[in-house]
Write a structure and sequence with these properties.
- With 704 residues, the protein is α+β, with helices and mostly antiparallel strands.
- Helix 1 runs parallel beside helix 5, helix 2 runs parallel beside helix 4 and helix 2 runs antiparallel to helix 5.
- Helix content is 27%, strand content 20%.
- Strand 23 and strand 24 form a beta hairpin.
- The radius of gyration is 31 Å and the shape is elongated.
- Bound molecules: fe (ii) ion.
Length: 704
C-alpha cells in the first residue's frame, strides 16, 4: 500500500516518548504530503482561484488554510511565539463553513500567488517539524492539555480538509482537473442488488468517547450519554443509485408532499432534478467523481444531502406504508456496534471502503459485508436524523473554542460512518461530524423502519444576560476567591440546621437552585420557589438533567462556555428531595405550607408587596419553625413601589431602615434568635466587572 494511504491516527498514550515523537513526525509529514497530492489533481494554478461552490472559498484558501491553522493554534496555545506570515495567517484563518460571520465576499480578498502559498506551506512544514524535535515529551504521552495537542489538532484538522477539499474538487469543471493514478477509481460497477429491511435488536448504547481513549478527539466527542434503543429494521444496503432512481422516476423531485418545508425551499431555489453529482445525457445518466465522469454505476451508493435523503424516506414510507426514516445517531451506533468490534487504529485491513485503503471513490453497495448488512462503515457517510448537540460533559478546547459550538443550532445534522477518503479521527467510531442539511459531502444514507420518534436534544446554552450572573452566582466560583456565597449561608446556619434533620424546608427566591439542593442535604423535602421563569428553568434543568450550560461574557466579544453538573457539588444523591415551582412570594398559593424551615434570599427586596409577604409568612411555618431572611434591602422602583418599601425612608422625622421594619412586622409572630450576620454576595457581569452586595442574614423563630 502507498505510504500516504491507510495510515492510522496515533496512540497518544504511548509510553515510549521518543518512539511517539517519531510517530508524530511521520504522521505529520504523511498528512501534509497527501494534502498536497490532492491538489495535484488541478490542471494549473489558475484553477485554485475558481469558486467550486458559491458558498465556499476557492481552493487557494484551503491550500493556505491547513498550513496557517498550525501556526494560529500553536500561537493561541502559547506553544510558539512568532508568526511566519501574519497576513497569510489572518487571510487563511476563517471561512470554512458557511457561517454568517464568515466573509465570503471575494472582493475583500487579494489571494496570493500559488508559488507563494506553497513556499509558505514549506516554511510551516519546517517549523512544525522543528517543533516536533524540540517539544518535551514524557511517558505520559500527549493529553488534552499538552502543548502537543495543538500539533495533533493541526494534523487531524488537515485530514478533515483532505476530505472536504476532495468534495470541492469534485465540483470543479471537469476540464480543470486531471485523474491521477494515486487517486484510483473503483473499477467495479454493475446492476444494484435488491434492498430489503432486516431486523436490528434493541439494547443499551452509550455515546461519547471513553475518557481513557488513546486517540485524538474533537470537543464534541467528549462527555457521554446513554440510550435504550428500541428494536428497529434497517436496510441491508446503503441506498444505491438505482434505488434512488426509482424515487426520481416516480416524480420525487416534483412533489412537495415528500419534502420538508426546508427541503422544498432548497429544491425550489436550486431547481434540482436529481442529486448534484448526477448528470443526464439523453436517456443516459453519468456520475461525476473527483476528477472524472463515468457511466452511472447503479450499484454504488447514491450521494445526496440530508434533504434529499429525507424526501426519499418519505416517499418510501408512502410506497410501503412503513415508518421509514433515517436512523438517529444512537440507532446508527446500535447497528454499527452490533456488527463491528474494531476501530481504525486496531484493524489490520479496513473492513469497509474507508481510510483510503481501497479506492479513491465509492464502490458497489454489496462489496463489504458486516454480518447480514453491508457498508456499516465506509463507502459514503450516512446522514442521520440527529442534529448535532453537545453530550453532557462536553468541554471546549481553549485553542479551538468554535470547532463545534456554532453548529449546535439544530441545523447541522450528524453524518456517521466515514467515506472512502475519511482518515485519522474521521474514521473512528466516536467521531461526530455535522453539516448543514443542504450540504454535499461524499454522503448518502441507509433507511430504517421504526415507529419510535427521534429524540431531539435542545439543551442550548443560556445566553440571557439577566440570567447568567445568577447561574454563576449559584454554580460558579466565588470571584473573590473566598468561600462561595451558598457555602457561607450554609455555614452560618450550621447550628440551626442540626436540629432540623429530616424536616421540610421552603426556599424562596431560589434563583437557579443551588441553595435548595444544599438544603436537601439536611431536609427530607425542599421546595424551591422563584418568580422568574427563566431562572427557575435553570434550576429545573439542573434537577432533571443534572447539568446546566451558559455562556458568560469575559470581555467584549470574548465569551466562555460553562457547563456545571450537580455531581460536581456532590448533590446528585439529594436531588430527589427537591422540587421547584415558579410563584410570586408576595402571593403564594395555599399549598405551600407546613414547613419547619423557610429560607428567603433576596426575596424581600424583590417582592412587589414585601409587607404582605412578611405578614403572612408565619402561616406557612409549623409552630417553632425557623425563618431565615437573607437580604440587601436594595429597593428597585421597577419592582417595589416607593410606598410599598419596608424601610429606607424617614418615619416621624427619623431614618427608618428595613431591619427595623422587619422587627416591627415580625415581632408579633417571631422572635429574633441571634444578632444579624453580614455576608457578601457577588454577581459577575464580566471577567473584570462584578457587583458586590452586602446582605444581612437574620434568623427568626416562630413563637409557639
Ligand atoms: Fe479548517
Amino acid at each position: 500500500m502507498d505510504d500516504m494511504k491507510g495510515i492510522k491516527t496515533l496512540n497518544l498514550k504511548l509510553t515510549e516518548p521518543e518512539k511517539l515523537r517519531e510517530q508524530v513526525r511521520y504522521y505529520f509529514h504523511q498528512t501534509y504530503s497527501i494534502d498536497e497530492k490532492l491538489y495535484d489533481s488541478l490542471i494549473n494554478d489558475e484553477t485554485f482561484y475558481l469558486r467550486a461552490d458559491p458558498l465556499r472559498h476557492p481552493l487557494v484558501f484551503y491550500l493556505g488554510h491547513t498550513a496557517a491553522f498550525y501556526i494560529n493554534k500553536l500561537i493561541i496555545g502559547k506553544v510558539i511565539e512568532e508568526r511566519i506570515n501574519p497576513s497569510y495567517e489572518s487571510m487563511f484563518a476563517i471561512g470554512v463553513d458557511e457561517m454568517s460571520w464568515d466573509d465570503l465576499n471575494e472582493a475583500n480578498y487579494d489571494w496570493p500567488s500559488i508559488p507563494n502559498v506553497k513556499r509558505y506551506r514549506d516554511l510551516v512544514r519546517e517549523r512544525v517539524d522543528r517543533l516536533i524535535s524540540e517539544l518535551p515529551l514524557d511517558e505520559n504521552g500527549i493529553g488534552w492539555n499538552s502543548p502537543w495537542w495543538g500539533v495533533i489538532m493541526g494534523i487531524e484538522h488537515q485530514r478533515i480538509h483532505l476530505e472536504t477539499s476532495s468534495v470541492l474538487i469534485r465540483q470543479l469543471p471537469l476540464e480543470k482537473v486531471r485523474p491521477l493514478d494515486f487517486w484510483n477509481v473503483c473499477p467495479k460497477a454493475g446492476a444494484a442488488p435488491q434492498n430489503e429491511l432486516l431486523p436490528v435488536a434493541g439494547g443499551k448504547i452509550r455515546l461519547g468517547r471513553d475518557d481513557n481513549s488513546p486517540w485524538y478527539g474533537w470537543d464534541n466527542e467528549y462527555g457521554s450519554i446513554s440510550f435504550d434503543v428500541k428494536q428497529f429494521e434497517a436496510s441491508k444496503y446503503l441506498v444505491s443509485n438505482a434505488e434512488f432512481l426509482e424515487f426520481i422516476e416516480d416524480g420525487g423531485y416534483t412533489q412537495e408532499r415528500f419534502w420538508t418545508p426546508e427541503g422544498w425551499s432548497w429544491l425550489s431555489f436550486q431547481k434540482a432534478l436529481m442529486p448534484r453529482f448526477w448528470r443526464k445525457e439523453g436517456q443516459n445518466y453519468k456520475l461525476r467523481l473527483m476528477t472524472t465522469e463515468i457511466e452511472m454505476p447503479w450499484n454504488w451508493p447514491v450521494e445526496c444531502n440530508y434533504l434529499e435523503a429525507k424526501a426519499f424516506c418519505n416517499w418510501k414510507a408512502a410506497q410501503t406504508s412503513l415508518p421509514i426514516r433515517l436512523p438517529s445517531e444512537e440507532e446508527w451506533m446500535r447497528l454499527r456496534d452490533s456488527h463491528i468490534n474494531t476501530d481504525q487504529p486496531l484493524w489490520d485491513v479496513a473492513p469497509g471502503n474507508i481510510n483510503l485503503e481501497f479506492w479513491a471513490s465509492s464502490c458497489p453497495v454489496d462489496h463489504f459485508g458486516f454480518g447480514d448488512f453491508y457498508d456499516l462503515i465506509g463507502n459514503v457517510w450516512q446522514w442521520t436524523e440527529t442534529p448535532i448537540y453537545p453530550f453532557p460533559g462536553f468541554k471546549i478546547h481553549p485553542i479551538y473554542d468554535d470547532f463545534s459550538v456554532p453548529t449546535f443550532d439544530g441545523r447541522h445534522n450528524l453524518i456517521k460512518g466515514g467515506s472512502w477518503i475519511s482518515t485519522g479521527n474521521e474514521a473512528l467510531r466516536d467521531s461526530r461530524y455535522a453539516f448543514r442539511r443542504h450540504f454535499y459531502q461524499h454522503a448518502g444514507f441507509r433507511y430504517i423502519s421504526s415507529p419510535e420518534p427521534v429524540t431531539l436534544h435542545d439543551e442550548p446554552y443560556e445566553t440571557d444576560p439577566t440570567i447568567i450572573p445568577w447561574c454563576d452566582a449559584n454554580w460558579g466560583d466565588n470571584p473573590l476567591g473566598d468561600k462561595h456565597f451558598s457555602q457561607q449561608v450554609m455555614e452560618t446556619l450550621q447550628t440551626t440546621l442540626k436540629k432540623l434533620q429530616g424536616k421540610k424546608a421552603l426556599h424562596l427566591g431560589c434563583k437557579t437552585g443551588r441553595l435548595s439542593f444544599e438544603l436537601a442535604r439536611t431536609f427530607a423535602h425542599v421546595t424551591g420557589i422563584d418568580f422568574t421563569t427563566r431562572l427557575i428553568r435553570q434550576a429545573i434543568q439542573m434537577h432533571e438533567k443534572g447539568f446546566i450550560r451558559y455562556i458568560r461574557v469575559e470581555e467584549g466579544e470574548i465569551v466562555s462556555h460553562v457547563e456545571k453538573h450537580l455531581k460536581d457539588f456532590a448533590l446528585q444523591d439529594v436531588a430527589d428531595k427537591v422540587e421547584f415551582w415558579q410563584a410570586d412570594v408576595s402571593n403564594l398559593i395555599a399549598k405551600f405550607t407546613g414547613y419547619d424551615f423557610i429560607l428567603a434570599v433576596n426575596a424581600i427586596e424583590e417582592a412587589i408587596k414585601p409587607r404582605r409577604f412578611l405578614e403572612e409568612i408565619h402561616t406557612r411555618l409549623n409552630s417553632g419553625g425557623i425563618l431565615v431572611l437573607v437580604d440587601g434591602y436594595a429597593w428597585n422602583p421597577d419592582i417595589t413601589r416607593a410606598e410599598d418599601r419596608l424601610g429606607g425612608f424617614r418615619k416621624d422625622g427619623e431614618p427608618y431602615g428595613s431591619f427595623e421594619a422587619l422587627n416591627d412586622i415580625l415581632d408579633k409572630e417571631f422572635e429574633l434568635l441571634e444578632e444579624p450576620r453580614e455576608l457578601w454576595q457577588t454577581l459577575r457581569q464580566q471577567q473584570r466587572l462584578h457587583s458586590l452586595k452586602k446582605v444581612q442574614l437574620t434568623i427568626w423563630r416562630k413563637k409557639a
